[in-house]
Amino acid sequence: MNQVTSVLIAGVGGQGTLLASRILGYAMMQEGYDVKVSEVHGMSQRGGSVVTYVRFGNEVHSPIIETGEADVLLAFEQLEAARFLPYLKPGAALVANTQKIDPMPVVTGTAQYPQGLFESIEKLGIRVTAVDALSLAEEAGSSKAVNVVLIGAMARQMSFPKEIWLDALKHCVQEKFLELNQKAFQLGWEA
Known about the structure:
Layout: E1 4-12, H1 17-30, E2 34-41, E3 49-57, E4 70-75, H2 78-83, E5 88-97, H3 104-107, H4 117-122, E6 127-131, H5 133-140, H6 146-157, H7 162-172, H8 175-190
Parallel strand pairs: 1-4, 4-5, 5-6
Antiparallel strand pairs: 1-3, 2-3
């Protein structure tokens, strides 16, 4: 049987979802898997949703993740976690940043940011790992390292050696930012 693992990465423009998908994809290629990555850009220039799909297994025929197919949702913001819940299969995992980024209706005062999202998601039978990735990224040296903190938190839950992730960082991150991102990954791994 061809076992394929599907990871949906969702965030807001500028949060580094594309780098996160490259790190995951490279790590899985190094483990010998067939890997397909698809980038779905929303209004990233305007702070809108950005989604990437990463699928890996013995043989992957399509990079697209359909509704109810994702094994893992890696969400860079709480509302993005809620928005992409329908993509998760039963028993799937959510690794999410606790950060809240107000969408325009909240900014203008026509709506309120929903409360208790993670608790509601857990009631659906989804395993939730909520990480204050922004604080950990700042501890590592840059708020822009949220993506790597979350990759570290997700990697810890997967059955692959830590070394493959560190090698993927070396391959995907510019050398001048490598040390900071290694620290961000470690903080996520420990979270």
